[in-house]
Amino acid sequence: RYKGSFFYCIAVIYFGVLAVFRGAVGTDTYNYEVITGSFRDSDGIVGWEPGFVYLVKILQFFTSSDALVIRIISLLFFLGIIRLIFKRGRDWRYFMMAFFVPGYFLAYSMNVLRVGLATLILFYVVVAVMEHGKKVKILFLSFLAIFFQYSILFSLFFVFSTSAKVWSGRRFFWLLGLSFLALCLLYSGMDYLIFNLGAYTVNEYVNPGGFSGLSIVAILLVLLCSIGLSNLPKSVKRKLISFGFIMMLSFYFMASYTYAGLRLLDLLSVSLALTAVLQHTVNERRFNSFFKGGLLFAGLLSGVSTMKGFLEFEGLGESPFLPYHFFWQ
After folding, report:
1. Cα separation of 85 and 12, whole Å?
2. Under 8 Å CB-to-CB from 310, ≥6 apart: which residues?
3. Is-cis flag, bond preceding 102, omega within 30?
4. Which one, of 293, 269, 159, lies nearest residue 220 by Cα?
5. What is residue 7's predicted lDDT score, i.e. its pLDDT?
């Protein structure tokens, strides 16, 4: 029976080509080229996540072009997504193609690279849980994700804390151990966090209006409604909806004052959808039409919001998303 594999491959390859063969395109592309260039000097690596630093240093061993290093990272993200899509069954592929690829692929492969890599690894963590992988593997991948972007700790916390069985037996102690080690890691990188928090709250990044983050809130509300109409057990629905709604309100309030709130809202949108997919597997439930429709609508909303941002900043900065051009143009 045809499962849409050819269409999936063509669609992801299209996005992958845009990401890998881009010229000076992507709001943070130029900044990342400058940052990776500073890694060639040992002083430049201070404060950055070690996973990202070592990945860049390995790639710099093979090329002197920092622009090429950034494109190779986009290539690795693309290859990781391709492999990930076919790791599970039809429902998983639907989630990836209806929600994640149209809504987040371009931003995560061309702009917020560290968040993209960390999220990619987070997905592999969830797949390992679905496949009843060894706890050591799950723990290793969890820390690997944190080493690429410290803020992914929130996503890991959300996924595991809302898991239906995470509080039972030895899993509770694994969660405690993960939290303790993560706190130690965050403490060791406190200077970095303070620096970034300051960057989020300076005038250039403050979001003074109460409308900041409304597009992500709309995405989250669609996801919450689709979870409520899904065929998950009622206890799981209550946990996901209550926890997700409280987090959404908290981060939306934060987004009125600081860009950090928008980043957390973005992480929550992916984490909430991913956790709902995980719970379908854990509870041996298939996606119903309401949940599928919610994923598709949320993915389209995210894609439209992303394109709106591209249009608003067309031609601005060193490497705007628009007008798009390939590196040879």
Report:
1. 10
2. 320, 321, 322
3. no
4. 269
5. 79
